[in-house]
Amino acid sequence: MKILCVKNRAMGDSLITLSALAKLKRIIPSLQLDYLIPSWIKPLYNHLAGPYDNIYPLKKGVEGFLAVSQLLLNNHYDFVLEFNQSGSTGKWFSLLQQLGVTQYRYHNHHKKKGNYVTAQGQVMSAIQRDMSLVESFLQKELSIRAIEESLPFEVLSLKSAPLKKKRILLGLAASRLTKVYPLPLAKELAEKMHHEWPEMMISVPLSLSVQDRKIASVVKSWNYPWCQVENVPLEDLPLLVAESLFYVGSDTGIKHLSVSLGVKTFTFFGPEDPFEWHPYDKKDHPYFFVEELACRTQKAHYCALDVCESMICLSSFSPEEVIKKLKEV
Asked: What pTM did the predictor assign?
């Protein structure tokens, strides 16, 4: 059997879905399983070994549709499984199914009704959504019932030997500023971490986006020789993460990559609930989160603000409190 799994979402999402791919491989060892992810994310996997046979880049627009069509025609996949269906790919694969090119199955948690995926429309964690598609596929297509009580997260390995632990990762990048630990507090936290672990370099991985450039400017203004901004290519990011003692910072793709590589994490959750985006053991990967914050749920089950003046959800955690948790773990 040949299956093409699709995740047209962000970097962290692509890593979470690897657990579902690993389950397919466990249940069907002879399966050829290929993974289609956004083209900008693909370099991340160059140094990683995971539960897939091939990884393909997903491009946007007409070029992407033509490339996907050719991929399906060349490989003769029995099924396409799309996790967390997106609008564009949903239309592409639905059309290709109508043309008889492949059989298309998906999970879209925004849809309240559906007969294919178990518990369609229920609020659940990201990893459970992916597992629900796999479990529904196995049961409906292959008459295999494979529901697990716990949700194992797939741990990846580097194709080369990991390097010696020599740094701490301070995560100040995020999709929006309301997910970032306030920078004045981050500066104080960096000082305290340096005091506790003076032999460690503190690295702040940032992209070259406009928002990250502004954060980088602030970090550089601290003038700490032991705290450096890292603008590494995505391909080399796993190497940077693997040689780190631990990660502390925003809930973002680098956090999920750290977990995937067995690096301990300490995550700040502000506008979003960890229930959905933190499918990990709390003992190994604790987080900081203010429960039942009224402003977070005024319009939805999360806060959608890009900028917030109070930042009460994250400023509630002092650097002293964070350091205490780091030392405990």
From this structure: 0.92
